[in-house]
Design brief:
The structure holds two protein chains of two kinds. By secondary structure, chain A is α+β, with helices and mostly antiparallel strands. Helices cover 56% and strands 16% of the residues of chain A. In chain A, the strands form three sheets. A five-stranded antiparallel β-sheet of chain A has the order 2-1-5-4-3. Chain A has a five-stranded mixed β-sheet with strand order 7-9-10-12-11, with helices on one face. In chain A, strand 1 and strand 2 form a beta hairpin. In chain A, helix 2 runs antiparallel to helix 3, helix 6 runs parallel beside helix 7 and helix 7 packs antiparallel against helix 9. The chains are: A alpha+beta, B alpha/beta. At the A-B interface, helix 4, helix 5, helix 6 and helix 7 of A face helix 1, helix 4 and helix 8 of B.
């Protein structure tokens, strides 16, 4: 399946929408995870700071200034590179003891919390700007105490969480997309094979059925239903065909008898009546011709392929049919041109092919006006031999071309022109028997009929 | 002419026999394959008409038996099937002509008469003559009243067939089958156009027409001064 086809496939679109929705929910979920973990860590850190301040204040109250400084120094020496920040300053905020070289300029909030940049002087130069969070506490005697924490570690953890979550979202989206592609590819392939089968059915192979996988899924159920429907349609069409064939068959015999009796009568009637009898015979012949055409179509349609097939030189067959119809066209003031460049031999039923071409030329001769041109040509490539009958007559309007192959269909609904309306139906039946493609095209102006025979037919 | 008709459908048999007798032929009837073959092998018929499907023995096997015992009597097979393959098979097994039921009696009659003629015209001839029209089969020339007539190859074959069967009615279907070698049904009377072209060449500039139309049946070629025409 190509990329463009994939994008158009509805299964893929559904998968895409699903991936987007799924990604959005994962994003929401991860947002909540981030908010609860990172928030919890900040809370923990704040609680530790408050506990420490409470402890230091307690020591100040009991042991005074010296006790407090000793405790701070002790804590600093225990973990000199630790994340804890202490600063004990005088009433003028001048540092007395601590690992911060000066009191931060930022103003604390109502509860005494303060967020500030860690001084460029306390930490080694060149490090990125680090944030700290501290709480300020005013001691008796105007002394100021600040206890805080270097937030670098926490921020690093937070950053890691964010990174992990972003990767998670990305991977989820990717997996959802890949899954969607895989699912839609699978579905697309099944739909593709179903479409191929439908195409064949529409070309006339009504006995063909859509492929199933016997998996019992919805698609299989649908395909099963369509197949049953096709069986019913096929049976109904067979019935219709059988009825019309039976009518043709049953009427043909009495009609022949009638015709034969007229023929026997003709010699014995008065000359005045002879004309009338001859007309009646002619009329009976036309009816018989119609019935014969119907039956011939039925036989061609029910025939086994390759029965009676033999090697046919298409070029000489075209020459023969042109030989037959050239003078007919000439008599009507038309020109019949034949252009054959190659001489392929294909396996076919020569009589039926000849019949098909005769029907096409019959039509062309009938509809092309005086002075018109009819062209019979043959084009071959490796896989096909295409016989083309082209004229510059009135053609068949595009909307009606599909109907043209139906039985009894005629361009003029009046049915005033001679012919049974079965000519093209027989051509279509012959084409189907030969696995050939029959195309009606606009020759602008006129009609172009292509009969594309498989070279191996 | 003495004709044997082998046909199991009584009504059809009676109809064919009656028609042939009215046309002046002597007809023997057989209604199954065994009787038919027995009569055939007596070898006294000019033409045998045999149904494809018969009780006892089918038409094609009768033809085969005839040919293997060197009986050359022309055979026309009648068939209700009308499948091209049957036709091909019947002709391959030795039948001379094949006609699908239902048929016009005139078609059957014309074919029977053509078959009878063929058996005695089979002798190698190099010239055909109808009235003052002369055809040389070796030089492939056509001359009427000393005047050379230029004809196309297909017209030559058409004229040859008509001349070989001069005096007999030849149907359009027969002409299509024998001159074009394809078994098919034209929707229009294409053959009429070819006949009229041929007429322009051989008849138009001469006082007596040789090629005549028989309404509802076909064409006949006959010399103008022949009595009873």
């Amino acid at each position: 399946m190509h990329a463009a086809q994939l994008l158009r496939s509805s299964a893929f679109r559904v998968a895409l929408v699903y991936a987007v929705l799924f990604g959005a929910s994962v994003l929401l979920l991860f947002g909540f995870i981030y908010w609860s973990t990172a928030g919890f860590m900040r809370q923990q850190s704040d609680a530790t700071i408050e506990a420490e301040i409470a402890g230091l204040a307690e020591r100040y109250r009991s042991d005074g200034l010296n006790g407090l400084t000793a405790l701070i120094e002790q804590r600093l020496s225990r973990a000199p590179e630790g994340p804890s920040i202490y600063l004990f300053a005088g009433p003028d905020r001048r540092p007395i003891v601590g690992n911060l070289d000066r009191w931060p300029a930022a103003e604390p909030d109502a509860e005494g919390w303060i967020d500030f940049r860690l001084g460029e002087s306390t930490r080694p130069q060149g490090e990125s700007v680090r944030m700290a969070r501290a709480k300020v506490f005013r001691l008796a005697g105007g002394f100021n105490l600040l206890v805080g924490r270097d937030m670098q570690e926490l921020e690093a953890i937070e950053a890691r969480i964010v990174r992990t979550l972003i990767w998670g979202v990305g991977m989820t989206a990717l997996l959802a997309l890949a899954g969607g592609v895989a699912v839609s590819y699978g579905v697309g392939r099944r739909l593709g094979s179903i479409n191929v089968a439908i195409d064949e059915i529409m070309k006339g192979r009504l006995s063909r059925r859509l492929p199933t996988r016997d998996s019992g899924d919805e698609l299989d159920l649908l395909v099963g239903n369509v197949n049953r429907m096709l069986t019913n349609i096929e049976a109904a069409m067979d019935d219709v065909r059988r009825v019309s064939d039976n009518i043709a068959h049953d009427l043909r015999t009495p009609l022949t008898r009638l015709r034969n009796r007229l023929e026997l009568v003709r010699g014995a009637t008065a000359p005045d009546n002879e004309e009338a009898v001859a007309d009646a015979i002619h009329e009976a012949d036309r009816l018989l011709q119609t019935f014969n055409a119907l039956l011939r179509i039925a036989r061609v349609e029910s025939r086994n392929r390759t029965d009676g097939f033999r090697d046919v030189e298409i070029a000489s067959l075209l020459a023969d049919v042109a030989d037959l119809y050239g003078p007919v066209a000439e008599a009507r003031g038309q020109r019949l041109e034949v252009s054959v460049q190659s001489a392929p031999v294909i396996v076919a039923d020569a009589d039926l092919l000849f019949q098909a071409l005769a029907n096409l030329l019959d039509n062309a001769v009938k509809y092309v006006p005086r002075g018109g041109r009819i062209k019979l040509s043959l084009a071959t490539d490796a896989a096909t031999a295409t016989i083309v009958v082209e004229d510059d007559g009135p053609g068949i309007p595009e909307a009606l071309r599909g109907k043209a192959l139906r039985r009894f269909w005629r361009l003029d609904d009046s049915r005033s022109s001679p012919g049974s309306g079965l000519g093209l139906s027989l051509v279509a039946a012959v084409a189907r028997l030969h696995d050939a493609e029959l195309l009606l095209e606009d020759a602008a102006p006129g009609l172009r009929v292509l009969l594309r025979l498989p070279a191996g037919a | 002419m003495r004709i044997l008709v082998i046909e199991d459908d009584r009504e059809m048999l009676a109809y064919i026999a009656k028609g042939l007798r009215e046309s002046g032929h002597v007809v023997d009837e057989a209604s199954d394959g065994k009787d038919g073959l027995f009569l055939v092998l007596e070898g006294k018929y000019d033409v045998v008409v045999v149904d494809r499907m018969l009780p006892g023995r089918d038409g094609v096997s009768i033809v085969q038996t005839m040919r293997s015992s060197d009986n050359r009597t022309p055979v026309l097979i009648l068939s209700a099937l009308g499948e091209v393959d049957d036709r091909v098979e019947g002709l391959r097994k030795g039948a001379d002509d094949y006609l699908t039921k239902p048929f016009a009696f005139s078609e059957l009659l014309a074919r029977i008469e053509a078959l009878a003629r063929r058996s005695d015209a089979e002798a190698i001839t190099t010239t055909l003559r109808v009235g003052d029209l002369e055809m040389n089969l070796l030089a492939r020339t056509v001359v009427r009243a000393g005047q050379t007539i230029d004809v196309q190859p297909r017209e030559f074959r058409l004229l040859e067939y008509l001349m070989r069967h001069s005096g007999q009615v030849v149907t359009r279907t027969m002409l299509l089958e024998k001159v074009w070698d394809y078994h098919f049904d034209p929707q229009t009377n294409v053959i009429d156009v070819h006949i009229s072209r041929l007429r322009r060449k051989i008849d138009r500039d001469f006082p007596e027409p040789l090629l005549q139309t028989v309404r509802g049946m076909g064409y006949v070629m006959r010399p103008p001064d022949k009595e009873g025409s």
